Amino acid sequence: MSDSSLHPDTIAVHSGRADLAELGVHALPIDLSTTNPLPDVERGGDSYEAMATGGRPPADGSMVYARLWNPTVARFEDALAEMEHAEAAVAFSSGMAAMTAVILAQTASTGRRHVVGARPLYGGTDHLLGSGLLGVETTYCHASEVRSAMRHDTGLVVVETPANPTLELVDIEEIVTAAGGVPVVVDNTFATPVLQNPLDHGAAMSLHSATKYLGGHGDVIAGVVACSEETAEALRRVRAVTGGLLHPLGAYLLHRGLTTLPVRMRQQQENARQIVQWLIDRPEVDEVFFPGLDGDPQGILQRQMRGTGAMIAMRLSGGYAAASAVASTVTLFTHAVSLGGVDSLIQHPAALTHRPVPADARPDADVLRLSIGLENAADLIADLEQAFQAPAVQNPSHLVAAGSEAAQLWSI
Ligand SMILES: *Cc1c(COP(=O)(O)O)cnc(C)c1O
Questions:
Q1: Can you give the pLDDT at residue 1?
Q2: What is the pTM of this model?
Q3: Is 313 strand, coil or helix?
Q4: Where in the chain are the domains?
């Protein structure tokens, strides 16, 4: 049960463990059963019915089948819900499975098949909304244009803040007002519940790619949505029917990972702050993207977040050639997609994470995204400094021809 008098650090360590003492264990158990004994035909049938329509297993019933319910997954969901100040949470096999369930639950099952997508969005989300695969029609717009994008048949508004990869902040309350009662889902992957709780600002759902900060160790793919119990029922129904389940081993690792999330987040953010301080004075860098670096003119960071997070984007003065050289010259950073783990990653959004986004909405080709980990900040800075010595970074002019040819691939 949630106790809101406790500090979030304490909640992160103790949440989702209410039944452990009764079970006589201290560490989280992993329940792997795919099927479960039924007390009798009638109670078995009633349990099935309850969960297939999105409910929880009845007290005198059975969990029936692991596509309907799993206690290890449910404990992680309870923990995440508490951290997000939500009644419930529903976990999925990936962030995209979570987003798919959100879209299906709010559109196909309500008959309102129009979605408003406030760009920039994660490339996969942008692509999913525009793909036609889920039978929705999407209007993309800037966050400031949501009100005029709304239609009588709009079933869902999708936003992301801080946005990927520009770290632009979106005012959640403003979007909720513009949506006028239509549910708003906020992709909270970059901020995590440690830094931002979208439901406190009126959002109906807070979605995470749990693959990133929640797991934090780069070894679990998962997604989770925090919301009201009523919305959770709709999402569980989609999950039970479509089968985008989180495996209990993944749920166990995520639940264990939540305990260190506040500490990881604070240290990764402090490392990021030091790296940003260094980057802004470097001639090799034209522009640094980091929440609050613009002075937070609308006060969104101040109002909505408890910190900046640990994601940075930077625009290289030497253009695409310099960006691609830095990505392949770093040694401590790993050149790889994904983010939010204990080790630092660097990647080229236009070529990779945002490749499915239409050219006119794709990030610029001279931008790199950095996910800052738990290494020592001075070591990370030294790695960037040595990468900046690459010829393409220091003297890009003789490489302009080759660089611009490759850059055309990313439509710049
Ligand atoms: C990675 C990511 C997703 C997709 O999550 P998967 O777990 O890879 O399916 C969605 N949104 C954001 C912001 C992400 O970074």
A1: 44
A2: 0.94
A3: strand
A4: 8-259, 261-410
Task: Look up residue 24 and give its amino acid.
Answer: G
CATH fold for the domain made of 8-259: Aspartate Aminotransferase; domain 2 (3.40.640)
pLDDT digits (tens, 9 = 90+) for 145-185: 999 999 999 999 999 999 988 899 999 999 999 999 999 99
Name residue, tokens 């980091």.
290
Binding pocket residue ranges, ligand 1, CB within 6 Å: 94-96, 122, 124-125, 160, 164, 187, 189, 209, 211-212, 221, 223
Q: How far is CA 297 from CA 168, 277, 286, 300, in A?
A: 12, 19, 21, 8
CATH number of 261-410, picked from 3.40.50.2000, 3.40.640.10, 3.30.110.10, 3.90.1150.10: 3.90.1150.10
User: Quick check: 54 and 233 in contact, CB under 8 A?
Assistant: yes
Active site residue 212: yes
Mode of pairing for the β-strands spanning 154-160 and 184-187: parallel
Only one residue has tokens 């519940």, namely: 193
| SS3 call for 146 | helix
301 torsion bin: left (phi>0), alpha (psi -120 to 50), beta (else): alpha
Ligand 1 midpoint to CA 396 (Å): 33
Cα 24 to middle of ligand 1, angstroms: 36
Q: Is 45 exposed, middle or buried (0-12, 13-18, 19+ CB in 10 A)?
A: middle
